[in-house]
Amino acid sequence: MSFLDDYINDQLKDPEFKKAWDESEASYQLARQLIDLRKQRGLTQKQLAKRVETQQSSISRAENGDHNLTIGTMAKITRGLGARIVVVQDNEEVIVKRRARTLFRHRNPDGAKVIRASRVKR
Question: How far is CA 60 from each of CA 42, 46, 75, rounded to the nearest angstrom?
Answer without folding.
Answer: 16, 9, 16
